[in-house]
Amino acid sequence: MKKLVFFLVFVAFLTAKMAFADDSVLMVKLTADKSMLAQKYAVYTLLKKYNSPMLGEVDAFFKACTIYQINCYLIPSIAGLESGFGKHIPYDSYNAFGWDVGNTDFHSWEDAIMTVARGLRKHYVNKEVTTVQDIAPIYAPPSTTWANNVSYFMHRLESIEETFNSEPLSF
Question: Are 54 and 44 in contact (CB under 8 A)?
């Protein structure tokens, strides 16, 4: 069923992109769309596996990573470690990320996702702190396991994406 839903979304992308006059431009666009689709599928699949209350926020994760140009797997992976993908948070805080040592309350999941993405861009990426290992001592001091645990979820997402990409879409 999941494959069918994502297949239909892919067909919608394909149909919308047929207006391109140049086939090479069309193929580049289709490749990019399929890559984003595979990444969204990976995030959706992992959030669903963990019965995350953020399951409906896949587009918000990708909006944030696109706007702030950060790895699309970083924010969901931080949520996985910090709160079991949003299941273990202070009541009504929407703070699945341990942001501000868990002391910040957000208005919604999307508000939290966008704020964390903006903060990662401003306080880390813009200062050339870009790897999980470099982010860890600033984001979660004095933890010696934070980087490995966030990386674990990032690798899980990459693995789901690879599985998705290895299975041909049938028409």
Answer: no
Cβ of 51: how many Cβ atoms within 10 Å? 11
Per-residue burial over 1-39, b if 16 or more Cβ lie within 10 Å, else e, is eeeeebeeebeebbeebeeeeeeeeeeeebeebbeebbb
What distance in Å separates the CA atoms of residue 105 and residue 96, rounded to the nearest whole number? Answer: 10
What span, in angstroms and rounded, lies between the C-alpha atoms of 162 and 27?
20
What does the block give as tokens for 1? Answer: 């069923």
Q: CA-CA distance, 94 to 54, in Å (whole number)?
A: 9
pLDDT digit of tens for each residue in the chain (171 aa)? 555 445 444 444 444 444 444 444 444 444 557 788 999 999 999 999 999 999 999 999 999 999 999 999 999 999 999 999 999 999 999 999 999 988 999 999 999 999 999 999 999 999 999 999 999 999 999 999 999 999 999 999 999 999 998 887 665
Q: What angle do CA 150, 162, 61 make, to 5 degrees?
A: 50
> Would you give the DSSP letter of residue 131?
S
